[in-house]
């Protein structure tokens, strides 16, 4: 489907035109075979007439305009209809008469505007032809025969209309798939931006606010400003990576957390004044897929919320590698400068829940009995999603 989606509409129309051209050439060649003369469509019961120059013109009119029925459906179908009328009124009855239903299929399939008016016009044009054939014929053709032939032509029109509807549904489906893909990509980038910007900027704000009260302690002030600079550099590095993802020439490799990322997150949070206890158990799986990055984002978001809403409260981070899954638990007491309940838009926790659900894991975030806030996640490892 990806290949078909990339084929421009003009090229698809040219391909359809070649099919109609092939049908026209085949009908033209078959109509010239002597054994097939007067063995084609016979409407009206007129006596057969030998092949002559006018017969060749009628055959050509019924066959060659089929090549342009995709681009000029009304004009080409009218030419085919004219050739069919000459064929029947002169009594040639060639195989080229099959070109009329083929033209009607193409007309109904590729006509963009005034389809109902066109159908009425061609139906109206059929009436004088049927009357003329009935008067010129031997009377063997009953009115029911003309009606039956008209139903056959209506069936050809219905087939073309069905093809057009099918193409329209497919185009709408491709449009929805493309829109859903763009939406999913925007959502993924928004999550990444939220994770990166919120965490780093929160740490920088907290550190900058703390620096206000350290003017009497130059050593601690210098350490705090150094931490702010380091946090800003990490933010710039992560933002550059996101910009690389937006570059069409960028590879499709999966995003992985930085080496020692969890330890760096914990140390950065500690520098911002948040007491954090960090425990990591087990050995990370060699092919954890996206689980490592999701675990990193869970810890990052939980520490960011701890800084924003429970500053100064004790926070414990536990990460356990259990073979085929990673268990993450971040517990924050509610005894800090603010309540231990994450406020804001809730976009961060909602994004984490989506990430974990995609991998088939479990996610929980809520208050515990001590008044603090806990985030738990069970993340299956080895999933490359």
Describe the 3D structure.
With 385 residues, the protein is an alpha+beta fold. Helices cover 60% and strands 9% of the residues. The chain has a five-stranded mixed sheet with strand order 1-2-3-5-4, covered by helices on one side. Helix 3 runs antiparallel to helix 4, helix 7 runs antiparallel to helix 8 and helix 7 (143-211) packs across helix 10 (291-309). The protein starts with a helix and ends in a 5-residue tail after the last strand. The model is unreliable at 1-7 and 336-343 (pLDDT under 50).
Q: What sequence of helices (H) and strands (E) makes up the elements? A: HHHHHHHHHEHEEHEE
Total DSSP E strands: 5
| Integer average pLDDT | 79
Structural class: alpha+beta
Number of helices: 11
Distance between the termini: 21 Å
Instruction: Report the sheet with the most strands, covering strand number, pairing sense and barrel closure.
Output: 5 strands, mixed
Which of globular, elongated, flat, extended, rod-shaped describes the shape? rod-shaped
Give the strand order of the largest sheet, numbering strands 1, 2, ... along the chain.
Answer: 1-2-3-5-4
What share of residues are in beta strands? 5-15%
Radius of gyration: 38 Å
Helix amount: 55-70%
Provide a concise account of the structure shown:
This protein has eleven helices and five strands. The protein has 385 residues and is an alpha+beta fold. A five-stranded mixed beta sheet has the order 1-2-3-5-4, with helices on one face.
């Amino acid at each position: 489907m990806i290949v078909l989606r990339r084929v421009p509409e003009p090229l698809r129309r040219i391909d359809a035109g070649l099919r109609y051209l092939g049908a026209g050439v085949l009908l033209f060649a078959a109509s010239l075979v002597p054994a097939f003369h007067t063995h084609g469509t016979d409407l009206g019961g007129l006596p057969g007439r030998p092949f002559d120059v006018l017969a060749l013109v009628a055959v050509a009119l019924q066959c060659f305009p089929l090549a342009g029925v995709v681009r000029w459906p009304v004009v080409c179908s009218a030419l085919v209809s004219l050739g069919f009328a000459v064929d029947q009124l002169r009594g040639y009855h060639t195989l080229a008469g099959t070109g009329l239903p083929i033209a009607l299929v193409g007309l109904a399939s590729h006509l963009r505007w005034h389809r109902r008016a066109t159908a009425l016009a061609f139906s109206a044009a059929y009436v004088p032809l049927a009357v003329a054939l009935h008067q010129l014929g031997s009377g063997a053709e009953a009115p029911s025969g003309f009606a039956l032939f008209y139903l056959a032509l209506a069936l050809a029109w219905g087939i073309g209309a069905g093809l057009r509807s099918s193409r329209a549904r497919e185009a709408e489906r491709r449009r929805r798939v493309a829109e859903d893909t763009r939406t999913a990509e925007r959502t993924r980038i928004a999550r990444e931006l939220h994770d990166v910007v919120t965490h780093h900027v929160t740490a920088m704000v907290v550190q900058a606010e703390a620096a206000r009260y350290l003017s009497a302690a130059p050593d601690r002030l210098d350490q705090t400003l150094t931490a702010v600079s380091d946090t800003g550099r990490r933010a710039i590095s992560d933002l550059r990576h996101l910009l690389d993802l937006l570059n069409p020439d960028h590879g499709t490799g999966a995003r992985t957390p930085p080496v020692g990322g969890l330890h760096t997150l914990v140390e950065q949070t500690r520098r911002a004044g948040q007491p954090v206890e960090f425990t990591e158990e087990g050995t990370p799986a060699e092919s954890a897929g996206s689980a490592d990055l999701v675990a990193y984002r869970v810890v990052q978001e939980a520490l960011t919320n701890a800084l924003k809403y429970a500053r100064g409260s004790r926070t414990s981070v536990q990460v356990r590698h259990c073979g085929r899954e990673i268990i993450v638990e971040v517990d924050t007491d509610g005894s800090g400068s603010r309540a231990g309940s994450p406020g804001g838009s809730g976009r961060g926790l909602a994004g984490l829940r989506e990430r974990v659900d995609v991998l088939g894991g479990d996610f929980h975030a809520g208050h515990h009995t001590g008044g603090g806030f806990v985030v738990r996640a069970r993340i299956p490892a080895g999933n490359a999603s």
